[in-house]
């Protein structure tokens, strides 16, 4: 009963914190792989389209963004058009609505854990508490990452392949079609899904072989999987092709007056298969280096610990023990007649769960670009493994402290001033004073993550707002840009704002440009420009953990 009450409390925290909302900004892909694109397409807002969604380089499927952020934006657009609410579209709803949908979807993880725990010898409610109490669930699984969808599809795949046995007896697999659909959908969402799907598919294939059915039945299962996978791929390819060639379609109809057959023929010539474009780009080491190169052991030694803490370390220890046991069996020549299915069995030590965890980890480690969020789908097998008897119980206090720290860092502090800053600027831009008299705003962001322009809630037809992203520009470039803007500051209704972290506030001071109306948003932690420890220990620690909004003073 205590575990159930604790899970219910943590589930309520997950939903409530989403609505609050969370101020932490984990990574730009949270916005620029779905919400930002859909805000431009559906709500006609000024946005920044990332290169993956340009027709010249389509590397991301549009199906999942349309089904998630696209649906939520379409709903609030309809509500506003029907006068259900006069201001349904604002920075808060633009941020929270897609997140809320993902938060609802995150309970697929809870369902999967509850279904899978008895099968893998874990306590269901202890596993649910481990899952719901992890900051990975509270932060990452309530955000609009493609990695989040990857984790949910991985969970569904594990449920399908693990529910083929009950009470220790074999049952005929019946979910071949669904497995084909989910595997293909996961591949189009992120081609790396194949690394996660490999072990579940091998496990499923082993169960089919062990079911000792006729050859005809075995072939039937594999044919169902292949046919459903092909059908799902056709759906994704068709949707992506129409999306990325929509402008060409308009030209075909308006200029050439082509028939439907001609349109289909030209679409065939321009067929868009986003996963292949994604792989073609990411298999080039030079392209990966543009996004950052890391040692091949980063996932094992850094990212796994950063996400899962002691649970990752315990899994590594158990993995070495399993490897030692396998080598011992190999030396005794047992491997020869047991084969791979002999390893992929449901046993007391749950070696299969370790394979479900470490095999994807190993495949992802082959790439030089390694970010922690790439590993968030692995929380499911890790939680199931850790919830087994006498495994993580004595580490309760450490697990709680670790997840509290992680939730505080990534849910509140990390780039935590940027979203409230955009909320503040949106209210300023749409204030009654601005509405009654035309104003022009120039927003210059420096040393912050890329600002999602959609949260400013400015229509594409409105030209009174200009956003300049200086990224991590040096002092000389930054001062040159600010001085140039100041020299052209002749409009009486023009406003220029510089948004910069407190840790580099002194850089702007050296530019010699006067500012007024300083606004400090707290907290904001920039790991790219971290605060200095001696300043944190002084009375100015708040300025080091803040984000400044500086309004340029017009020279007379």
UniProtKB/TrEMBL annotation:
Q: What class of enzyme is it?
A: transferase
Q: Name one GO molecular function term.
A: alpha-1,2-mannosyltransferase activity
**Annotated Gene Ontology cellular component terms:** endoplasmic reticulum membrane
Give the record's membrane topology: Multi-pass membrane protein
Q: Which organism is it from?
A: Notiomystis cincta
Q: Which InterPro entries match?
A: GPI_mannosylTrfase
Q: Write down the superkingdom of origin.
A: Eukaryota
Tell me what this protein is called.
Mannosyltransferase
Q: What's the main place this protein lives?
A: endoplasmic reticulum
- Spans through the membrane: 187-209, 221-244, 300-323, 343-368, 374-390, 397-418
Enzyme Commission number(s) from the entry: 2.4.1.-
Q: Give the source lineage, highest ranks first.
A: Eukaryota, Metazoa, Chordata, Craniata, Vertebrata
- Localization per record: Endoplasmic reticulum membrane
């Amino acid at each position: 009963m205590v575990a159930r009450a604790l899970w219910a409390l943590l589930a309520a925290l997950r939903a409530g914190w989403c609505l609050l909302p969370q101020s932490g900004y984990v990574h730009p892909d949270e916005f620029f792989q779905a919400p930002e694109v859909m805000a431009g397409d559906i709500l006609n807002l000024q946005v920044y389209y990332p290169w993956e969604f340009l027709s010249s380089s389509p590397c991301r499927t549009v199906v999942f963004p349309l089904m998630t952020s696209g649906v939520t934006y379409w709903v609030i657009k309809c509500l506003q058009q029907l006068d259900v609410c006069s201001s349904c579209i604002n920075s808060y709803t633009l941020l929270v609505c897609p997140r809320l949908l993902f938060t609802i979807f995150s309970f697929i993880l809870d369902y999967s854990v509850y279904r899978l725990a008895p099968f893998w010898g874990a306590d269901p409610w202890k596993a649910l508490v481990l899952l719901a109490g992890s900051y990975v669930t509270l932060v990452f699984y309530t955000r609009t990452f493609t990695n989040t969808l990857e984790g949910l599809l991985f969970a569904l795949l594990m449920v399908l392949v693990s529910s083929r046995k009950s009470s220790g007896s074999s049952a005929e697999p019946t979910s071949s079609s669904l497995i084909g659909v989910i595997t293909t959908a996961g591949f189009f969402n992120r081609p790396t899904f194949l690394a996660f799907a490999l072990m579940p598919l091998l496990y499923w294939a082993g169960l089919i072989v062990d079911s000792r059915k006729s050859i005809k039945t075995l072939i039937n299962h594999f044919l169902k999987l292949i046919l459903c996978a092909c059908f799902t791929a056709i759906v994704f390819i068709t949707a992506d092709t129409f999306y990325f060639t929509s402008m060409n379609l308009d030209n075909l109809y308006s200029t050439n007056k082509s028939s439907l057959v001609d349109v289909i023929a030209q679409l065939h010539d321009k067929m868009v298969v986003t996963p292949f474009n994604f792989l073609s780009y990411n298999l080039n080491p030079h392209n990966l280096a543009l996004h950052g190169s890391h040692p091949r052991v980063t996932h094992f030694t850094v990212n796994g610990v950063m996400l899962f803490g002691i649970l990752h370390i315990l899994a590594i220890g158990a993995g070495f023990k399993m490897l030692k046991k396998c080598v011992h069996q190999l030396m005794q020549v047992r491997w020869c007649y047991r084969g791979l299915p002999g390893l992929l069995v449901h046993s007391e030590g749950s070696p299969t769960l370790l394979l479900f965890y470490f095999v994807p980890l190993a495949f992802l480690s082959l790439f030089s670009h390694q970010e922690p969020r790439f590993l968030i789908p692995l929380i499911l097998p890790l939680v199931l493994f850790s919830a087994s008897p006498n495994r993580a119980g004595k580490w309760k206090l450490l697990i709680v402290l670790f997840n509290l720290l992680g939730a505080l860092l990534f849910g509140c502090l990390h780039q935590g001033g940027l979203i409230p800053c955009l909320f503040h600027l949106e209210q300023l831009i749409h204030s009654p004073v601005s509405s009654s008299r035309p104003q022009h705003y120039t927003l210059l962001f420096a040393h912050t993550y890329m600002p999602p322009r959609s949260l400013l809630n400015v229509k594409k037809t409105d030209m009174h707002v200009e956003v300049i992203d200086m990224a991590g520009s040096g002092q000389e470039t930054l001062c040159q840009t600010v001085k140039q803007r100041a020299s052209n500051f002749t409009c009486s209704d023009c406003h220029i704002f510089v948004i910069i972290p407190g840790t580099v506030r002194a850089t702007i001071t050296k530019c010699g440009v006067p500012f007024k109306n300083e606004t400090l948003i707290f907290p904001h932690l920039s790991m790219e420009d971290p605060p200095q420890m001696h300043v944190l220990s002084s009375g100015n620690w708040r300025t080091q953990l803040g984000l400044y909004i500086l309004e340029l003073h017009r020279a007379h």
